Amino acid sequence: MRSLLLSIRGVLGLAAGAGIWLCGSLADASETAIIKYRFLRMPVSVPELAKFAETGEASASLGAYLKMTRKAPEEVQKPLTQTVPVNGVLLYRVLNTPLGEILLDEISQVIHTPDNLANRQSLRSALVTSALGDNKINIVEILQNYPTQEVHLEGERLAELYAKLNRLSRSIPRF
User: Fold this and answer.
1) Domain ranges, ordered by start, for the chain
2) Using CA atoms, how far apart are residues 114 and 67, in angstroms rounded to an integer?
3) What pTM was estimated for this model as a whole?
4) Angle, to 10 degrees, between the axis of helix 119-134 and the axis of helix 98-107?
5) Predicted pLDDT of residue 157
């Protein structure tokens, strides 16, 4: 009986995760990231940021922004591309617990909606959608899967965001 219950839970978890993945892929994904760094705010297209993360080559506007912030491109590129291994179904389950909501609140201090409303839901969707395909997440994938047209990113806290994602990953058992 216990194994039947565990099987049913597993199937329900997979179904819920698949539902989030399918709904997330049908929803509008972020087109623009507003990167904030101290007093600067710069809109960057998410595809442009993804290309920079992948190749290290900054567009003219992104290069100008990096000069203003006095950041080397590698300093920004590294946290964008570092991956964190995590099981998407288990991530979904953890993020729907009280502890998961606390973690979502912490992470949403760095990456959030433009109006700071529905941060938990938006971030949960982006994280789970990012993890379901390949059981890993990185900041660029989260931006690409964020379910709003615009996503805000606190640039000074990129390394902190990666550390929080890593901590989240360690709190989820590997199955």
Assistant:
1) 2-170
2) 25
3) 0.77
4) 100
5) 83
